[in-house]
Design a protein that fits this description.
The protein is an alpha/beta fold. Helix content is 36%, strand content 18%. S-adenosylmethionine binds next to loops.
Length: 271
């Protein structure tokens, strides 16, 4: 199996496993319940990834942010660049992005509400694609379109799938190991197959993401495990919480979880 086939196969298997435990139909906008978590101050200075990305942008640049979400990176980049074109298919995410742009008076972001492969956008100086690829099945077409639309491509991925901290809890609740999504190692294999030799930089973070309260932990974990109220699985999670969470200054984190550190994979496409 080639690297691109393996990438797609991992996503299909993970999605099939999600469907096997999900009760009811998938939501029309799978980000609707999570979009509020992607709201962030564009002028924050305590985010190492934003600080790293700011250094890559100059005031003359037009930047594409593909899968921009609620604008966590599109908006800080807009403060550095001439313009940002934010491509984002989720209506809930686009709403958050537009609200934060309004509140923060950032007016040089154009939102294109579309999937990347359908988006009609001009060529830019740089394309950013941050924590998006884990579920992109048509990986070759997606990467090739990034290359066609930017002088420099910057893909941000974690060394492990974003939900990997929850994988051990999946097994405790559902009784089977969670099938992983692809992440950085598989992406580097894909790039190898496509003949791309990127630079890879690690951005060190000081703390991992946590939950503000026990209640927030219960709700967010339940969503990530596809649990509904009044089921044996939900009761199992409830019983596990005191053992799997630790409380710190910033709220609750999963015991033993290693903070996920972003990798910036960048290259200048051959023209
Ligand atoms: C984990 S969020 C990351 C959002 C933002 N880049 C960030 O880091 O805060 C992933 C985003 O990718 C978007 N996305 C998923 N598939 C996409 C596609 N095919 N084209 C464009 N965006 C996509 C989702 O809608 C979602 O907003």
């Amino acid at each position: 199996m080639s690297a691109t086939e393996r990438w797609t196969e991992m996503i299909k298997l993970e999605h099939a496993q999600s469907e096997s435990v999900r009760k009811g139909d998938p939501p029309a906008d799978s980000w609707a319940n999570f979009a509020a978590q992607f709201r962030a101050d564009p002028r924050r200075t305590d985010d190492p990834l934003v600080n790293f990305l700011r250094e890559q942008i100059t005031p003359q640049m037009i930047v594409l942010d593909v899968g921009a979400g609620g604008g966590r990176f599109a908006l800080p980049m807009a403060l550095e660049a001439k313009k940002v074109i934010a491509v984002e298919p989720s209506p809930a995410m686009c709403q958050v992005l537009r609200e934060v742009a309004d509140e923060s008076e950032v007016d040089n972001v154009e939102v294109v509400e579309a999937e990347w492969l359908d988006a009609q956008v001009p060529k830019a100086d740089a394309a950013l694609c941050c924590n998006v690829l884990y579920t992109v099945q048509e990986i070759e077409a997606f990467v090739r379109k990034l290359e066609e639309h930017a002088g420099r491509v910057m893909v941000v991925l974690y060394q492990a799938p974003p939900q990997s901290q929850v994988y051990p809890i999946w097994e405790m609740v559902h009784g089977v190991p969670r099938l992983p999504l692809p992440s950085l190692p598989e992406f580097l294999e894909v790039l190898g197959q496509l003949g791309v030799e990127p630079d890879v930089e690690v951005v060190h973070v000081t703390r991992g993401r946590g939950f503000k309260s026990l209640d927030a932990a219960r709700q967010q974990l339940a969503r990530r495990l596809y649990l509904t109220p009044d089921t044996p699985e939900m009761e199992r999670l409830q019983g596990l919480l005191p053992d799997i969470l630790v409380e710190g200054d910033q709220g609750f984190t999963i015991k033993g979880a290693v903070p996920l550190e972003p990798r910036v994979v960048s290259w200048r496409p051959k023209v």
